[in-house]
Design goal:
Layout (H helix, E strand, L loop, with lengths): L2 H18 L5 H10 L7 H9 L7 H8 L4 H7 L3 H4 L2 H20 L6 H15 L7 H7 L7 H26 L4 H10 L5 H5 L5 H13 L11 H19 L7 H20 L15
């Protein structure tokens, strides 16, 4: 991995937990419940929070943009989400949820000059992101910019997170990996425990069929582990993902980037140390 791509991945690792807090914070579930969503599991609010910037879209749009989720799972939550609350109401509640969650998580740091400095830097990067052909990034980039620094930081982190994710979907499709194959091939290199990937709703028959397709391509062995070719393909997918995510970060100078790493460090520690986030995700952070 080149030095530049290593820096790009480092920034993703720092920002991803700051974005993901939304999906796990108790304040988010409280706001979701106030709208009328079930909160006995996280998926009703997850699909609403994440899809709302796209508008009141149907199943097909979410299947295409979220990519790794089983269409059957998406159909369970979308478009039913919009019968509970409009996308506009969800976006307003999302902002309230992030505000409350960050205040609870970060305490006095929310009003500190360091967070404001970090927010301004990350916003610069997010505003430099080209969102053409990146639907989730574009939808979030089209939203208003909040004035409060902690909300600005979350908004910028979310744009960059979805910008990277949209690029990752393109890299997977370019490698000839359909949604379930993308998970099977990722599990095959040990990116996360099998039960983590099971959260995406694919049935055992679908999983096994995808495994056999990858075996025929020489990417997996019969026991489900990646071959050298399979590992090489996944490495190439991650390289292309990093490359597609790199352009916005080129607007920061080296000293600014190092300063941003310094500023984000305590926020990352707070998010990781909160115990809210799962230890393993389908993103494979730290494993690829």
């Amino acid at each position: 991995m080149s030095e530049e791509l290593g820096r790009v991945r480092q920034m993703w690792h720092l920002l991803e937990p700051l974005h993901a807090v939304l999906y796990y914070a108790p304040e988010s579930f409280e706001e979701a419940a106030a709208l009328g969503y079930r909160t006995d599991e996280r998926w009703p609010s997850y699909f609403a929070w994440r899809a709302a910037p796209l508008g009141e879209v149907g199943t097909g749009r979410v299947v295409d943009t979220f990519y790794s989720f089983s269409p059957a799972m998406v159909r369970e939550y979308v478009p039913a989400a919009w019968s509970v609350a409009s996308s506009g109401a969800v976006l307003a509640a999302r902002t309230r949820a992030v505000d409350r969650a960050y205040r609870g998580l970060l305490g006095e740091q929310v009003a500190g000059p360091e967070l404001a400095e970090a927010a301004a830097l990350v916003r610069r990067v997010a505003e430099a992101a080209d969102t053409v052909g990146r639907p989730l990034a574009a939808a979030n980039a089209a939203l208003f910019w909040p004035e409060e620094p902690h909300l600005m930081l979350w908004q910028a982190a979310t744009i960059l997170r979805e910008h990277r994710g949209d690029g990752h979907v393109a890299a997977l499709a370019g490698a000839g990996l359909d949604p379930v194959e993308s998970l099977v091939s990722f599990a095959a290199i040990g990116a996360a425990r099998p039960e983590v990937f099971a959260s995406r709703g694919w049935g055992d028959e679908e999983w096994q069929a995808a495994r056999q397709r990858l075996v025929k391509r020489g990417l997996l062995t019969q026991d489900g582990t990646a071959t050298d070719a399979g590992r090489a393909l996944r490495t190439e997918v991650e390289r292309r993902t990093d490359e597609a995510a790199a352009a916005p970060w080129r607007g920061l100078g080296e000293e600014e980037r190092e300063r941003l790493v310094e500023l984000l460090g305590p926020l990352w520690v707070a998010a990781i140390g909160s115990g809210l986030l799962p230890s393993g995700t389908t993103l494979g952070i730290g494993k690829v």
